Structure prediction request, 676 residues.
Amino acid sequence: MLLGYTDEIDTSASKLKRAEKLLDQKPVLPKSIFDLCIWASDYYHHPVGEVFGAAMPVLLRQGRLATREIEQFALTEAGKDLDIESLKKAPKQQAALSFFKQNPEGANRADIDDISASVIRALIEKALIERKLASPGYFKFEGVEHQGINPSAEQQIAIDSIRKTGTYLLQGITGSGKTEVYLRLIERALEQGRQSLVLVPEIGLTPQTVQRFRARFRVPIAVLHSGLTDTERLHSWQDAASGHAGIVIGTRSAIFTPLAYPGLIVVDEEHDTSFKQHEGFKYSARDLAVLRGNLEQIPVLLGSATPSLESLHNAQRGKYSHLHLRERPIGIATENYSIISLKHQDTHNGFSDRLVKLMRQHLEASGQVLVFLNRRGFAPVLLCPECHWMANCARCDARLIYHLSRERLICHHCGFESRVPKQCTKCQSPSLLMLGLGTQRIEEHLKSLFPDTRVMRIDRDSTRLKGSFDSLLDEIAEGKPAVLVGTQMLAKGHHFSNVTLSVMVEIDSSFYSSDFKAIEHMGQLILQVGGRSGRAEKSGTVVIQTHFPEQPVLKQLISDGYGAFADTLLQERRETSLPPFSHQAIIRAESTSPTLSLTFLDEVAKVKAPPLVDLFGPFPSSMEKRQGRFRAILLLSSRSRQQLQRELDKRIISAEQSRQSKKVRWSVDVDPIDLF
Ligand code: ADP
Ligand code: ZN
Ligand code: ZN
Prediction:
């Protein structure tokens, strides 16, 4: 990768590598993506080579060309001159030739699916047509199918508000028609010959999203997510970069995909934490999208039912334009939220009698019931009642989770597995207790409560086999009464038109979490789970079971909605000077010794910080030991992004110079999502 050149350099010649070959005649990346990478390397304090590496498909890095060549067929001079009548005896060849006469510029392989390979071969042998390799060319927008949908007044206002540049926050509850707004804007871009980039949170979401786009537009669509082979990924990238794809849909890393004619960037579910990369190059694809829009002078649309507090703050101070969809399209009901208090109520395997009764009512009325719990496995605690020994992971500060189906104890943080002990390993007592809830336990319990009802579990364990997730989704779509037990996998993106009741059995840990974003994420999750139901004509009920029914933010979320809830949280963040009212960065360190990470960070923290920057720590991470390594963090915070960056630069230099720096693994995380 050639970033620049110079005539003079301090490094000795022996350390330099020779440039061997010029692979591409034109720069592989357009200037905007180049600048985006340089900016990201600087802002996230990550080596520029790795940033460019992350921005390009593997095969491209390995030397494959940035442009794709595809097979094309076109008439030869002889073919042009030939009278079509002379092929009377070979009607298939005649039909094919007349097709080429109508398309004198030739056709791609994909465009002539209905002409058989043998006919093509025969025409080539007669030298009437020739095969060429050519780049696929810019997309042709060949039509749109509105499926009878007309934008509502609110949608039209949103659509009309989006101008040639700027960042827009589109807030509207699930089912309020945000995607329809994206589709209209993409259509507008396509009509102008411009491409759109759509970022979505997770691969599980992509098939449904892509289907909806394909049903709407007759235009090539390139898809980019982690489930592709290297070759597929390269092709999608090439199609985006060459302008062959009119729409590019992808997950986080697609933000670096060049577009020949950029027109629009959409970030759907902009609050989703999966837009932030947690390992290695720790960038936020959402934040880079905003920057990229600016560089390319195109509009960026951030959409969510539950926008992040950062984006709401940016909207409130006028950096983003705030657009709302307050009503669902006619015929789509809204859901009702309510709380079941667990005070003075017994539960069995996590379910109160009131909740079970309610579930029974919905099942008897032929509805489906969704039960959400964000923990796989059967039980998170294996406890000896005699000596209080617990099964902990030897490599992490975490409990081992009992998995019923595999009869194993598994650590969800490092993957460590072990047999289930028959007796306490400390006092040999044979009566070990399994405490706490996992999806497997809930599944077992609900099967015994509702023996005649289908109970389906949807989590990473139950969908490991290829196609199993899809077949579960198909079964749900049939609409027969059923209980669906699942994790995040179930909560994201899918529409379950027959779910009339959604249940959250365990949200309480958010109320005593040390993570200041825990409540924000809880609120987003509640509405996300709630949004799975009530999409169709049947209105949905959402029930939250909690020991903290009097929590004001929870009550506010339910009675006044996300906007009021978010305002309260923003007010709290303002008073405590937490993000988005300040900016944070973390220097993380880990090592095999329990003290070394802390000693190292102590050294980095030694020099006093200037007035506008606060330094916290170093302290051990909230999960100090993970995968056998001891982890610690140093937190920097400032109201000024610039000051924070400057201070971070200094600290990084002192980290590099530290005597310990070779013995610890350390990394920088700017705008961290969590402080683990
Ligand atoms: P969101 O993206 O906010 O969850 P969608 O765009 O998926 O909402 O819309 C929810 C449902 O409402 C979809 O089935 C969509 O086809 C339908 N819909 C959206 N806008 C309209 C409209 N203006 N008229 C009729 N149906 C609409
Ligand atoms: Zn572990
Ligand atoms: Zn014991």
Q: What stands out?
A: The chain has four domains: 70-134, 153-325, 336-375+437-572, 583-670. The radius of gyration is 29 Å. The chain is about 30% helix and 20% strand.
